[in-house]
Amino acid sequence: MFLTTTCICVVVTVTITITTTTASISDAMNLANELNVPQTCLDFSSKPLRIANAKRIQAANKEQPTMPLMPLVDVLLLDTARANGDAACVAEALAAGANVDVVGEDGISAIGHAARHGDGKAVAELLSSGMTRDSDAGARTGCARWRCGDALRAAAANARADVARMLLNAATDDLHRAVDDEGRNALHVAMRTAARARGNADVRRKAHAIAKMVLRFAARVNDPEYADIPEESDENFTALHIASAAGDAEGVKFLLELGAIPAITDANGRLPRHVASNSAVLEQLPVLSNDAETLVDGTKFGKDDGALVGIIHTDYTPAPKRREGQSTWTWWSITPALLAFVLLAWSIRALVNTSAVSKS
C-alpha cells in the first residue's frame, strides 16, 4: 500500500512538472513571438517578463489602470543588459522597438548596466541606436550627459577602461561633469576605485587610466576647473584629497601633472597634504607658504591669474594612522611602567633578604 501511494505521488509530481515546463515553454514562445525576438533572448529575463506580462493583462482589464506599465520590450532590454546578456539580444530588443534611453526602477539605464559589466559590444549597440534615433529626429545628442552619465561612472566604479574610452569618444557635451546623488563625478569615482583596489595592481592601473582619460577630456573641452571640483559629501574631498588619504602616491603625482591644485581645502579646512596617509604622498605634495601666493621655494602657483585657491597651512603635521588591530602602546610609553616594576621587585627582594639575615 505504501509503495503504491509513493508511486502515485511520484507520477503526479512528474506530471505536474512536465505540465508546468510545457506551459512555461509555451508562454516563452508566445512572448517571443509577441515581442518579435528570438526565444533564446528571453533566457536573461523570462521571469520578469512573464510578471510584467501578467501585470499588463491585469491592467488592461481595468477601465482605469492605476499606473502606466513599461513596454515589455523595454523590460527585455533592461534585463538583458542587467544580466550581462548577449549583445546580439540587446540589438534584437532595440530592433523590436525598445527605448534606448529606458531607465529601470533602480535609476540605472540599459547602457549603465552594460558599462558596469564592461560589455563593450552591448555599449556599442546602445550608442549606435541612440545616435541613429537622434539623427532621425534631427538632433545630435549622441553620448550626452543625460544619457551616458551613469554609464561613465559605472565604468569608473568597475575599472572598465575600454568602455570609458568608448563613452568619452562618443561624448557630445560635458559628459564628464555628470554626478550621482553624492555629487561624485567620474574622476571622483575612478580615484575611489583606485583607493579601494589596494593590493590589486591591475584594477588600480585601469582606474588610474580612466581618471587620466577624464582629465584629458576635460582639458580638451576647456574645463580647467574640473580636477578641483569637490564631492558634495560631508567631507567635500577633491580627487587629490581622495588619492592623498588613500596613500595613492602615483595618483597624486599624475593629478598634479594634469592640473590639480594642492591648495584647496575640504569641509574641515584640510589640504590634501593634511590627510596624506604616508610619506610617499607627502613627498609629492608641495609645502605651501603663508602668503597664499607662492610655494616655499618662491615659485608662483595657481590658475591663470596666479591666485592661490584655498586656505594655506604650514604648521599642520598629520598624525600617523594606526592600523586596524594595532596596539596604541609603544616602548616609550611603557618604559616608565617597566622601570617602576623593576624597582618594586628589587625592593621586595631586598626586604626578603634582610628578613632572612635577621632570623639567622
UniProtKB/TrEMBL annotation:
Q: Name one Pfam family in it.
A: Ank
Give the source's domain of life in one word.
Answer: Eukaryota
- The transmembrane residues are 329-352
Q: Where are the ANK repeats?
A: 235-267
Which of UniProt's keywords are assigned here?
A: ANK repeat, Membrane, Repeat, Signal, Transmembrane, Transmembrane helix
User: Residues of the signal sequence?
Assistant: 1-23
Protein name as it appears in the record: PGG domain-containing protein
Species of origin reads: Pycnococcus provasolii
